[in-house]
Amino acid sequence: MVPDAFLTFPLLEQPEAIERLGLVSYDMDFDDTSLDLREYMGAVLRYVCADTRAVAWAAFEGAFHYDELLTDQVAHQVYGYCTTGTEPVVEWDTAALRGEEWRHRIAKARAVLDALLSASEMRDRKSRTD
What we know:
This protein is α+β, with helices and mostly antiparallel strands. About 40% of the residues lie in helices and about 20% in strands. The strands form 2 sheets. A 3-stranded antiparallel β-sheet has the order 3-4-5, sandwiched between helices. Strands 1-2 form a two-stranded antiparallel sheet. Strand 4 and strand 5 (about 90) form a beta hairpin. The protein is globular, with a radius of gyration of 15 Å. About 15% of the residues are buried.
């Protein structure tokens, strides 16, 4: 399965450590609405989070500022996510996406993203002092 259109967008005002790691938003369009996109997104997320420290997510609308990523304000727009070492979660039910449990799960993914940023910043500081 290949998207009919594929665009990339850099996020605005990323912390320096994240920008260096290559945080990018991808916009994929599929013309065929009969495709099983849930299975496709699970496979994509699994691939992105395999064998590396990563957090990845899929959303109906993009958040283009780092401070908005994986927050309560946009949790209902996120329909899939994964973190390193876990199976991807893809949810299609809009009621579930608006629920408290989903917001809690998205907040955990954001915590992993923040931890990756902190670890990267600590490595940067250590390399500057060595």
